[in-house]
User: Which sequence fits this backbone?
């Protein structure tokens, strides 16, 4: 019998570690550790890995056994201290909520700083946790930091500055900076970070002014404190947080703004400065009433959860993806030049949980309905786009492969998806079937393959799920597919339209 030679363990250490890191992605150290039993060399490389992740999720019973947890972490860090091993990344996950760990977190942080840590991440990962971790002054010595992510940290100091400002002034190599739900920041000047490419400032209550000067900034995301934290009687006041971006005009590609109470003029001014924008996301920016975007570079636009928006003009011929969510029965799009659109999601939802019993299927705002109908008919379907309409209230899906005669179901809760499924038609069908609808209706085009693909996919899905075979009904010339008794309002509406003569229904 030939001798078995372990060639994998002969791989260079950095390749083995890269394999382990992929196995243990999302901080799953258990799977990563299990992989290390393949050989002593793999185990050694893993124990001395440069990425140190200290997470409560990899230790059962942490709350009742802090002493054992601390000992376990100290033992795992001992080789780094004894052999002066490098620590590139330190991730502290879910530890802030335990007051008894604060001094130990400080120790572990100091060790990483002494070993020239380049990436530091502190996460709370607890929605119920009201505690903040006070960043120690020792962090100012982390001169090699290129990535810094802080969540639920206290950055207050006694004087008028804050610890984040001090970090920015001393850690000049930072490339990625993320501050989420931290307190103690009122005024922030991000300057002097010549390598800064990504900046996130999220949910920092009390932040009043941000000034950014970063010539190589590529991504900026801002999320203001939720409006619910303000008094309900609050009128429109000067911005809770003033954002002033003084540089990066030609490098900023991704801009995400949420709960940023910008006025029309302020948003227009910001937009006019950044000619390289490829991704723009606006969420809960309630003060904006009119949006006009003229760009040949914008590829993705998201507009979600707005109240006062009246008009949107999109002159974006290279836009590929578009997402729109609203609880308001209004279609504000006056102009939309999107000849290269590949994907669009439009979602209307009811605001609040109350359902008016007097509202019946078909009782919708006429202006909104006509504008929505006009909107979907203006889109260019010549490159394989299909329109998918989901009525989740009635568990119904309507697919227009043939866009020559589109009729929108008259309901207030509706979700539209415009996509090109030709390259992944089976996956497209399976994804819709998995949503467990009662009916899928297809308006096929000439020489359509979609109906056949849906039929075959549903049969395989039913067989896999050990369910009864599909009840497929094909309607021609207005013949009823099912008895009227027990049908949904959606299907009753469908039978009243000219579509019923050429539609294919799959009943579940």
Assistant:
């Amino acid at each position: 019998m030939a001798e078995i030679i372990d060639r994998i363990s002969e791989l260079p250490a950095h390749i083995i570690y890269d394999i382990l890191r992929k196995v243990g992605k999302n901080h799953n150290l258990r799977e990563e550790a299990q992989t290390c039993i393949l050989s002593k060399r793999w185990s050694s490389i893993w124990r001395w890995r440069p990425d140190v992740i200290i997470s409560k999720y990899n230790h059962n019973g942490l709350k009742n056994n802090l002493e054992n947890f601390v000992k376990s972490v100290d033992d795992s860090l001992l080789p780094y201290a004894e052999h002066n091993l490098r620590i590139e990344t330190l991730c502290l996950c879910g530890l802030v909520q335990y007051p008894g760990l604060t001094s130990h977190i400080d120790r572990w942080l100091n060790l990483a700083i002494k070993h020239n840590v380049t990436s530091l991440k502190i996460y709370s990962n607890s929605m119920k946790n009201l505690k903040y971790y006070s960043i120690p002054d020792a962090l100012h010595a982390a001169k090699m930091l290129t990535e810094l992510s802080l969540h639920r940290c206290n950055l207050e100091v006694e004087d008028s500055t804050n610890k984040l400002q001090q970090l920015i002034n001393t850690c000049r190599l930072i490339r990625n900076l993320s501050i989420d739900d931290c307190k103690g920041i009122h005024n922030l000047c991000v300057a002097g970070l010549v390598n800064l490419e990504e900046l996130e400032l999220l949910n920092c209550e009390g932040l009043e002014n941000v000034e950014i000067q970063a010539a190589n900034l590529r991504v900026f995301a801002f999320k203001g404190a939720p409006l619910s934290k303000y008094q309900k009687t609050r009128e429109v006041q000067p911005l809770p947080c003033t954002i002033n971006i003084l540089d990066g005009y030609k490098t900023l590609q991704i801009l995400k703004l949420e709960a940023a109470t910008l006025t029309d003029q302020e948003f227009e001014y910001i937009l006019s400065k950044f000619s390289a924008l490829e991704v723009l996301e606006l969420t809960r920016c309630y003060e904006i009433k009119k949006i006009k975007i003229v760009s040949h570079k914008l590829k993705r636009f998201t507009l979600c959860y707005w109240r006062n928006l009246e008009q949107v003009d999109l002159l974006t011929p290279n836009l590929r993806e578009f997402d729109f969510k609203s609880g308001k029965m209004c279609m504000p799009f006056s102009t939309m030049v999107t000849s290269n659109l590949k994907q669009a999601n439009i979602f209307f939802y009811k605001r609040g949980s109350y359902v008016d019993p007097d509202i019946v299927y078909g009782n919708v705002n006429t202006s909104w309905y006509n504008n929505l109908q006009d909107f979907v008919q203006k889109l260019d379907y010549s490159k394989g786009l299909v329109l998918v309409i989901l009525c989740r209230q009635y568990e119904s899906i309507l697919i227009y492969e043939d866009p020559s005669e589109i009729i929108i179901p008259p309901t207030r809760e509706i979700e539209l998806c415009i996509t090109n499924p030709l390259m992944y038609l089976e996956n497209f069908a399976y994804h819709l079937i998995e949503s467990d609808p009662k009916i899928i209706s297809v308006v096929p085009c000439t020489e359509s393959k979609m109906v056949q693909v849906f039929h075959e996919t549903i049969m395989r899905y039913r067989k896999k799920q050990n369910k009864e075979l599909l009840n497929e009904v094909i309607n021609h010339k207005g013949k009823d597919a099912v008895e009227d008794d027990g049908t949904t309002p959606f299907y009753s509406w469908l039978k009243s339209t000219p579509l019923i003569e050429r539609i294919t229904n799959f009943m579940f």
User: Anything to note?
Assistant: The longest strand covers residues 321-326.
